[in-house]
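Methods, example record. To illustrate the input and output format used throughout this study, we show the complete record for ZIP family metal transporter. The sequence lines were provided to the predictor; the line carrying structure tokens was produced by it.
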Amino acid sequence: MIILFYILISNFIISLISLIGIFTLMIKEKLLQKILLFLVSLSAGALMGGAFIHLLPEAQEKYRDGNMFLIVLLSFIFFFFVEKLLHWRHCHKGECEIHTFGYMNLFGDAVHNFIDGLVIAATFLTDIKLGIATSLAVFLHEIPQEIGDFGVLLYSGFGRKKAIISNFLVALTAVLGGLIGYFLSFSIDRFTTYLLPFTAGGFIYIAASDLMPEIRKETNLKKSLVSFAVFIVGILLMFLVKFIGHE
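The corresponding predicted structure is encoded as:
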């Protein structure tokens, strides 16, 4: 039961990030854009580090036939397809184009958060340290994403109060995903084994196709170097979690 507690509390804490929209209202737009660049950089590093330092090595120990890499590739393709299908807009800057209505954005987020919940459940069931590392990577990614999602809802016509409440309710689907993932692991053979490389593929896709292109848009050399350094810090955070885990 202690594992279930870890899964539920981790997902609930991550869900609370959806309330970050309240605080963005107190920050000037110019300052928010500067902060977002570094948050995106930190998130990209954490996701890459989580995939290559934690998830893939753990998955490789469970696979002996080479299928792990096929699952990573299929996961990458799956996330690409879902992004196209649902028109996910991880809009990290306020002036992004909005091609979909706010409700479609909420639906896409619900699917995304539910998958996060499944992933966190699977990693905690594999190893508590792996669960903590994965939760940290998801947590750091959710900060810039939730700020962007909040902006999308406002631009699509939601009032501030409605946007904050809607974002939070949708974020709670991560808790549902965690709960279902926990019980699925007892009924589906090798559930966690398959989900580890699947998660790694998703982390790599989000970092490479969504976050890193945002970082590359920065043309100022000084800011670019600082954002690159923050990206490395995100990777080092994952190293640190693994190092502490072996102590």
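Annotations derived from this record:
Residues 123 and 130 are 6 Å apart (CA to CA).
The two ends are 25 Å apart (CA to CA).
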